[in-house]
Design brief:
By secondary structure, the chain is an alpha+beta fold. The protein is 53% helix and 22% strand. The mean pLDDT is 85. This is Elongation factor Ts.
Length: 150
């Protein structure tokens, strides 16, 4: 099946994965965008799992303080390279994770990863991290979390 440029562009803008992966997924799914999304998600999770043993050498510290000043949180998010740590996708993940910690106050990293994601309860925080890892092609891990309440 011939895949249209419009389909590829739409999924690229939505998912942020490589054009070749999108083209392959659309061809495999006979142009069905929902099936292509599922194939891309599965492929991304498989990539993330393969990369999970790679060494973390870079990352960022993310913080959030609620406007009342009564709630705050910090998350140390690690990745393999500083290049990935500067990407918009990594920055967005860090901001989402620190909001998650501030909202639900997880005590440990494993507890955080098991929580339902506050913006989409159909997935866990661990799944969100794996999806981002698959998109960016690097091992991404939450190294430390801390929440503060008055």
């Amino acid at each position: 099946m011939k895949v249209s440029v419009e389909h590829i562009k739409k999924l690229r803008d939505e998912l942020g994965v490589s054009i070749s992966d999108i083209r392959y997924a659309l061809e495999e799914s006979d142009g069905n965008e929902d099936k292509a999304r599922e194939l891309l998600k599965k492929k991304g999770l498989e990539r993330a799992e393969k990369k999970s043993e790679r060494q973390i050498k870079a990352g960022r510290v993310f913080s959030y303080i609620h406007h009342t000043g009564a709630v705050g949180a910090m998350v140390v998010l690690g990745c393999e390279t500083d290049f990935v740590a500067r990407t918009d996708e990594f920055q967005k993940l860090g901001a989402e994770l620190v909001m998650q910690v501030a909202s639900l106050g997880a005590g440990t990293v494993s507890e955080l990863q098991g929580q339902d994601y506050i913006r989409d309860s159909s997935k866990t925080v661990g799944t969100l991290i794996q999806e981002t890892s698959g998109k960016l092609g690097e091992n991404i891990q939450v190294k430390e979390i801390k929440s503060f309440r008055v």
